[in-house]
Write a structure and sequence with these properties.
single chain; mainly beta; seven-stranded mixed sheet; four-stranded antiparallel sheet; 53% strand
Length: 115
Amino acid sequence: QLVESGGGLVQPGGSLRLSCAASGLTLDYAAIGWFRQAPGKERDGVSCISAVRSRAYYADSVKGRFTISRDNAKNTVYLQMNSLKPEDTAVYYCKGSYLDLGDYWGKGTMVTVSS
């Protein structure tokens, strides 16, 4: 099971750090992705980090503002979000992808960027 946390209401230009914690699963061997879905829109990929070498990838819309990282000792992946914009408002989901187990999704955490 994956559980996201850290969402909330923040003003434009502010920061939030989202966490994706696993229970019953080990994240060490999973590629972890963060996705978001704004009201009335499709779910889009935001960032992901590979299982091997922890290579990070970002959507153009968040590049330079968001940073993904993993702490295998805590079995958690983070998404540090800086310089937040109103268009970042969405429900954020994490997904763990395992070669042998398939994909696991969390239930999401809401991020609202508004003054």
